[in-house]
Design a protein that fits this description.
- The complex is a heterotrimer of chains A (504), B (478) and C (116).
- Chain A is mainly alpha-helical and 504 residues long.
- Helices cover 72% and strands 3% of the residues of chain A.
- Chain A has a domain of 217 residues.
- Chain B has 478 residues and is mainly α.
- In chain C, 28% of the residues are buried.
- The radius of gyration of chain C is 22 Å and the shape is elongated.
- Chain C has 116 residues and is an all-alpha fold.
- The longest helix of chain C is centred in the middle third of the chain and has 34 residues.
- Classes of the chains: A mainly alpha (504), B mainly alpha (478), C mainly alpha (116).
- Chains B and C meet through helix 5, helix 6 and helix 14 of B and helix 1, helix 2 and helix 3 of C.
Chain lengths: 504, 478, 116
Amino acid sequence: MSALFTWTSLLPVLIILSSLIPGLLIFATPEHARTRRTLLNMTGIAIKLILVALMLAGVSQGLTFRFEIPFLPSAPLVLHGDALSLQFIALSSILWLATTIYAIGYLEGSPLRSRFFGYFSLCVSATVGLALAGNLVTFLLFYELLTLSTFPLVVHRGTPAALKAGRVYLAYTLGGGTLLMMGVALLHSLVTTPDFTAGGYVLAQIEDSSLGLQIAFILMIAGLGVKAALVPLHSWLPQAMVAPAPVSALLHAVAVVKAGAFGIIRVVYDVYGVEASALLALTQPLLWLAAVTMIYASIRALQQQDIKRRLAFSTVSQVSYITLGVALAGPIAAVGAIVHLVHQGLMKVTLFFCAGNFAETLGIHKVQEMDGLGQRMPWTMAAFSVGALGMIGVPPVAGFISKIYLGMGALEVGQPWVVLLLAGSALLNAAYFLPLLYRGWFGKPPADGWQQDNFKNHRFETHWMLLMPALFTALLSLLVGIFAGSILSPLGWSEFIVSREFAQ
Amino acid sequence: MTYALVSLSIPLLSALALMLAGARLSNRNAGIMAIVTSLLSLGAAWFCLLDVAAANQSILLNLGGWENGLAIRLRLSPLSSLLLLFTAFMHVLIGIYAGFSRRGVSRDFWTLSSLLHGSLAALWLSADLFNLYITLELLGLTAVAMVALAGKKAYKPAANYLILSLVASLFYLLGVALVYGRYGSLDVVLLGLQTQSDTTTRIALLVMTAGLMLKAALWPLHLWLPAAHANAPTAVSALLSGLVVKGPIFILWLLWSEVAPVDLAQQIGPVLAVAGMIALVAGGLSAMRSPYLKTLVAYSTVAQLGYAMMALGLLMAWQLPQMHVALWLFVIAHGLAKATLFLAAGEMQTTLGTKRVSGLRGATQTVPVAMFAFAVAGGSLIGLPPSGGFLAKWVLLEPMLSSPQNWPWAFGVLLGTLVSAAYIFRVVAISFDRARINPPDVRPDRLGHWLALLPALMVWGMALIGEWLIEFLSGGGV
Amino acid sequence: MSGLQLYLILGAAVFLLGLHGLLMTTDSIRRLIAVNLMGAGIFLIMVALAGRISPPDPVLHALVVTGLVVAISATAFALRLITAAARVDSGQSAVPDKASRLASKSESDVAEDSRP
């Protein structure tokens, strides 16, 4: 029993509690107590960042962080901080900081903020729990809790459109959750539920129950694919755009779609393992699925005139890069996939912050209205440009690094067509992002002035709480690209993860 | 065993005392007395549980010291100790709700709820077919009287409920007569050693099953339930859905897992399981379409009992001990969740002044605690991890998934999950509507709302003792 | 045909007659009578079964006596409830109850739970 309470076993729990407890306290905070709410938020974030840094240091020293309590027979609840979970946790904690500041600015003066920030914190807790989950049952648990805690955020505005989007969101994600549960239960009946293991744990059973293993894989990927927005399970994502901008940012960059992508990484690498996945003929269909998603969503993005919807389809396309890298099943592609988890998050959150700024400051929602934005809001436009160029894959922004690794990984495993696919996707990305940049920088502002202009007399071009997070994440996406060679960059860490994964 | 008898007799004596005292006891004191006696019974049930857990087997008691065969026997199994505890807890909780929340209840409520508590405790402890008949009849009559507490408009549903309940008991009694005529014994344990699958036994078991299914509102004999449960006062609805329908299920389970010959059980099992699957989907669809909140919750009982029936049917068909565990986890998880759903629904109706589901627009703002309770309890009905409903579903799913020819059953569970999600989130989604908020008539009753939340939190808390519960129930299901 | 068989068949016939009446009528009092008929059929079967052996089986006699007590009290309760329900039905228009007084509420629906 005494081993239960060492600091290494409690740290994962504390990391979850550091956002859960502030979240619960925020629910109890009266609406007008703005300072108290902000204080709670910021304290939670600060504690979480410190704890995550501690764990990061520990894991790179080779310490293991594992917490376990009994739950189901031969499937306990396990929280386990390994290198891969830390990649995701570090991302979500940093983006939680940026998004919270942004949300405080964005929602200033609007009603029901205590409820909003309460669920916001719960959502982050669920995401972090999901990252720390040490086996499939624990993962499933947090996966469902994530659905529940994001739903109130999606319908936060409470308009008929928001409710409609919320119903669609629930139908998809709860359906996906049920499929995932079926898959997890099926796999449990075949091989029980041990901890996630580098290289997987199903190989021994592959002779006896290959059909069961295949079906379990399909069920789980279908369940995870809903959140990862794999075509044809992606329709909820563009609809969920009615949510407030910080929610979109969180949904797209960290919480929901990443939970799906992260789950796919876990299932392929740590449950089935690359070898067993290949033996069961599972990786190739997944690769095709990712390829179709990538191209289809890019084409759909081209057709969208609403900025946020265009970004949404771009997310669908970009997240499938992660799936693609996983499905390629080679070490270099794996690095690309895992690093893209972070890179896409940083870039996409920047883009959503900027889109939110345009909407909040000048009431701009459509692509055509972006003419001359760069003159009125140069900083936001610059951040937007960094994100967009990164998405296309222009060096030295982060996206370039991911694409290089994915391409090299494809060549390594002998699938050169994927390089063509990546090039095609980059072209499509350029096709739907460059017009926005062109209009913003080189278009002429409307002659009769902006239809609305909210933060005219501010010191900055918009509210500082809206501007700073966007600049911060844009800067980060540049830095992680420029310093990709250092061991502390996401790339260096991804290589560290993959070196363990492919060690056998 | 002594503790079990204490836990059983305290509420019975309390009911008697309350009835004799009549108007001499103020409503308030009657309430306090009923709650305190439930609490005492709860304490006794707790010790009872500890006893059984220590002994790790069932304890039998021959009442009056008669020898086997002649004696009416009581039996304390791990399951019955758990059910005793559960029943007492629900009575304490709902008693507190009825007594202290703003909408009081009449004095008769206390007499009847004590009687209900006593008859349920007797039912869980009985191991004699005729004694079970008596407890069943007592349970039915008390439940009807409690429905009638809702006032004039509930008389008609109550009268219908009574007639159906009487018919159901008579079917059961006919079966008991046939069994006694064939084997000369009514003791569950002794019968289990004797029964053969001949015509008399078959007819007897089928007649009893039909009666019990009618009593438990198992599909397709469920039509009376929505009217009766939706028209009762809130506290009574919670007791009816959470506890009363579980009584006949207990007897049904006793009959088919202990009394019936195995080959007969294997024949009938799949039929029951299919009926359960249909109940799950059909009840869910009715709940989805119901315009009234309480009717929605009542139909959800019909649907959720489908899970129990499925577990029972597959228990009979496959003779797998896990299915005991699944069945009783469902019963307990459903009882707790349903208590919350009815209490929350009742509170929201009173506060918002509407019975309709569509009247809940904006309920997350106007009645946040009750709405949250509703959603949390609903999560357990859907079976989201780590709630009690999830535990039960997990135990149910494992044997279904272990061999490919059983996978169609898992598909039934999948379907049931989706339908439950649909009707629960139909309510939850409406409550987030901020565009056309339905303003509350009165200030929310805070205590009532928080009390409604309590069982919902407990059903999710079952996760913490999940592994223990599964082991405890599989250790001595019989 | 032995006496036992005769009584058993008679009991079954009475039970089925009661069941038929229950399913075929809608009037509550008639249905209650039908239920009692079903009960009588079962008691007949039980008494007949008791007579299989000599001296007659006292257990079954005891069960029948208990069953009769239950049946009588249940019937009394049912009669009271049915007449009360009938009175509500006939007197509804004359005495508006709480529900109809509050009917002005939106969508003409109202929280219930009036207490007796």
